[in-house]
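Q: What would this complex look like in 3D?
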Amino acid sequence: MSISPKMALLEEYALVARALSAPARLMLLEQLAQSERRVEALAEKTGLTVANCSQHLQQLRRVGLVTSRRDGKAIIYRLTDARTLTLLGILGDVAERNLAQVGEILRGLSNGEDAPEPINRDELAARLTEGSVTVLDVRPADEFADAHIPGALNMAVTELDKFLTDLDRNTEIVAYCRGPYCIYAHQAVAFLRKNGFNARRLDGGLPEWREDGRAIRSTS
Amino acid sequence: MSISPKMALLEEYALVARALSAPARLMLLEQLAQSERRVEALAEKTGLTVANCSQHLQQLRRVGLVTSRRDGKAIIYRLTDARTLTLLGILGDVAERNLAQVGEILRGLSNGEDAPEPINRDELAARLTEGSVTVLDVRPADEFADAHIPGALNMAVTELDKFLTDLDRNTEIVAYCRGPYCIYAHQAVAFLRKNGFNARRLDGGLPEWREDGRAIRSTS
DNA sequence: CTATCATTCAATTATTCGATTGAATGATCT
DNA sequence: AGATCATTCAATCGAATAATTGAATGATAG
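A: Here is my prediction, written as structure tokens for the whole assembly.
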């Protein structure tokens, strides 16, 4: 062998890390964590051109993070493996813990107010069966339509102000979005609290909830 | 703000991933997972020049993965956070699962023989108290001297052939090394089995054992 | 069989990264 | 206070990467 197996292994691991080292690809993975999608849909969601999006997807495929299949005229991409979700989550954790910049950005989302600790998924599941909580899915309507936590209301964070009158001020609100890289729930909670609601974030988004093996309401 | 907070966040996460995207830096992190070290020691262990090593360490420091302090004339680096261990472990998992190349390299270490499933750390801990197992630390002697699993014998994989007569053929052998990126234990197990011993790998290396909160024999 | 259309390829440009060299820094120790 | 020595900086080169554009592919649908 020309190089040692040790170096060969490390280079493979480094390839996976490199695949995660572009913001565009992290965005794509976040989207694919919601549900499988065609290239065009991914391009639209992420604001990338279709060609650029395709290139990034192929880099992700080269290291096995995503897989594709054909459905009619479209090529549908999906995450190969749920473990990728864990990897992304911990990457976020490490970044949040080690990079001061990240903490500042997250605090900025709350306009300087102290955000309450997020509620964990076990606790939310228990509260849901009691009916003692309002669950708010603040993702765009099409993603909500794809799949959501049973019983959740859909109010996209961009239009939350129009829905405020529909919300009960006496019930605690739990907002969730796409997962650890998504800031919608942060923004929603900040907005709701400024308007006098008792709101918290869910720890993790829909993909994590699904990965726990919990029930999902979905169209397919 | 010039760019959206969402993009700003993703760029930070991507920075962390990029820091993990060079084999040299993964090697450094593996070393630092054993114990804190000075730049010169790291350079020697990894085969990098001191200057090059220093550069890589600074990239790791920039994203908060390592921290340094001064001790006498030396600058000592260490992992900032044990969570980095988890991140590295899952990165390896994902790579092993998704990249065919990785599986081939790992199989190549066993010379085509089927390697048995590794033993997990809980089980090893139980077997250790029973005394029904020989634990073999196959890392270099200096790393063993730094810290090791109590009761383990040290036989560096490179010199394992000289020690074969010291090993009991009737007791199961469990070999461990630096962790998921280290191939010493793979090699040792393959060699031992070829020579008629009943040997298995430990799942995870010394850093993972320590991270579980288990006892360590160490010099300091 | 052919037209269509989503996706991919190819080629370019600008940028970034890694290794290397030798010099500079700066805290320690005498 | 000054010598020493581990570490870091600065500058360079070669290589690799990301975004962009327009053209090519190739499977489906009619």
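A: To summarize the key features: Residues 18, 22, 24, 48-49, 51-52, 55-56, 70, 72-73 of chain A lie near DNA strand D (CB under 10 Å from a C1'). The domain at 5-81 of chain A is CATH 1.10.10.10 (Arc Repressor Mutant, subunit A).
Q: Very helpful, thank you.
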